Amino acid sequence: MTAQEVNFSNFFETTLNGILASGATSMTLTAAPTSDGTSQISAPYYLVIDPDNASNREVVEVTAAAGTTVSAMTRDKEGRHTTDPTHVDGTVVRMAVIKEMFEDVHDRVDALPTASSTTTFTNKTISSASNTLSIDAADIADGSVSDTEFQYLNGVTSDVQTQIDSKASIGLIIALGG
């Protein structure tokens, strides 16, 4: 299964507005899925047709819809039927949390970076193999230091200000004694 994000609406239930024939990939509902009773949710989402009938229950993945018209869907996502069942006009259609949603979440978690992976983020690369983090110098503090300017710090072995103060003292003594 491919990791994907699907939409969900609590307590959404409607009925079929017409027959859903075996093999059909579109259907009409009597009400559109909404998030709050008024705002329609967009595909993709899952619907369960005839959810209270164990022998005829069918989970479909809706991939395109507008209002009450589902124009594209994948039938029998759970593989319960050898052929898609026919559902009659008025059959209950419900949105429910189903196993495919948990599989989707599981796949998304599996795709996250791990301690042994190398993952590229926008302007940042984290490599666990070399235990390094690459960040553009412009991303540090106020962004006014360039990568070139930042690279000048390479080879500094102690506090920069202490080194400057030390050199200034020596230079002052030479100038006065010269």
Low-confidence stretches: none
Question: Which percent range describes the beta-strand content?
Answer: 15-25%
Calculate Rg over CA atoms.
31 Å
Number of domains: 2
Oligomeric state of shown chains: single chain
- Tell me about the largest β-sheet: 6 strands, antiparallel
Elements, N to C (H/E): EEEEEEHEEEHH
Strand elements, count = 9
Helix amount = 10-25%
What structural class is derived from the secondary structure elements? alpha+beta
Which descriptor suits the 3D outline? elongated
Number of helices: 3
| Cα-to-Cα separation, first versus last residue | 81 Å
Instruction: Give the averaged pLDDT, no decimals.
Output: 82
Strand order of the largest sheet: 1-6-3-4-5-2
Describe the structure.
- The chain has a six-stranded antiparallel sheet, with no helix packed on it.
- By secondary structure, the chain is of the alpha+beta class.
- The chain has three helices and nine strands; from the N terminus they run ββββββαβββαα.
- It folds into two domains: 13-108; 118-177, no CATH class.
- Helix content is 20%, strand content 22%.
Quickly describe the structure.
With 178 residues, this protein is of the alpha+beta class.
What descriptive keywords fit this protein?
178 residues; alpha+beta; six-stranded antiparallel β-sheet; three-stranded antiparallel β-sheet; 3 helices; 9 strands; elongated
